[in-house]
Write the structure tokens for this entry.
Amino acid sequence: MSKRALITGVSGQDGSYLAELLLSQGYQVFGLVRRSSNERLERIAHLADSLVLVRGDLLDHTSLVRAMEEARPDEVYNLAAQSFVPTSWQEPVLTAEFTALGATRLLEALRQVAPRARFYQASSSEIFGKVRVSPQDERTPFWPRSPYGVAKLYAHWITVNYRESYGLFACCGILFNHESPRRGVEFVTRKITREAARIRLGLARELRLGNLEARRDWGFAGDYVRAMWLMLQQPSPEDYVIATGEMHSVREVCEVAFDELGLDWREHVVHDAKLVRPAEVDLLVGDASKARRDLGWKPEVGFQQLIRDMVRADLRDLSGRI
Ligand code: NAP
Ligand code: F7E
């Protein structure tokens, strides 16, 4: 009999790639979607015939219980969150409700309905925050620098606590930044690739950015959802860092993106102090040795290829709209 999986956040970047992966493996996939006045399911439109969509919201415990009852999952992937760091300063309480308490509500629903299901929690490298040691691994101390990071740290520890308290098969993947042509346009890589393509097409002239010196470990989302699945196939539940081990600056993203289009980024990028964060995470770079060793996982797509693929996808998309 085919396995059954429930994905929260199925309409997001990672949810769409994970749904594709699980469907290709013969899973029956249920995706939790919340009510919105403007239904934006374009990332999973191509899966409409194979995905079962279930109504529910991380704010509403009853809806999560119903979703569990309908899906009767073998595996649950909690990818839903308010995931944009700047918004977490504007809406700190809502961020905590979705991103922190939402995890507890889902774990409680799982305990109530499907206690034998395996659980994946989308932890984030943002929990490392103001790092004192590099690279970061599973033993690195946490120091989150935004309400988002703090909310993710709560969700991380509640998942560990439910594993230790109730013996759940619950794992946290501490994933470093991962991107794709499906990345939200507000995140820096996609903002750069999309605006660079708009400039190339004469649709824009400048690109306003905040801290160009911030450094991150950027990988490809398609590689990272494979790691999520692998964590739930192990004999025992553990937490893993998932990262490429390479660090690049926002400035380097600009260089590569504009170069792909034959442009000089310095002629178009404008510093905007309003985009600088109240507390910045200056650098993050992960050590995924444990995942390599135990899961046999490694990234397939490197930084240059990732950014160039994103630029080409944006150029194709925008050209088709002109
Ligand atoms: P994303 O594109 O922003 O997707 C977030 C998803 O959460 C969307 O499907 C959204 O639904 C859903 N959602 C938000 N609030 C919800 C609520 N109250 N109830 C139900 N669903 C809700 O994020 P992503 O990049 O795919 O990331 C997936 C997860 O990994 C997130 O938890 C994120 O914080 C975490 N993470 C991401 C990265 C990264 O670099 N991408 C790294 C580490 C961790 P709507 O479509 O209705 O808005
Ligand atoms: O910013 C700098 C900004 O918004 C990256 C989320 O998926 O990854 C993501 O969080 C860096 C920061 O991602 C702009 O200050 C400069 O230092 O793309 P971002 P993030 O904050 O790292 C983690 C792992 C998650 O878990 C999150 O959910 O880029 N930056 N100028 C800018 N960033 C944005 N967005 N826009 C700018 O104009």
User: Anything to note?
Assistant: The mean pLDDT is 97.
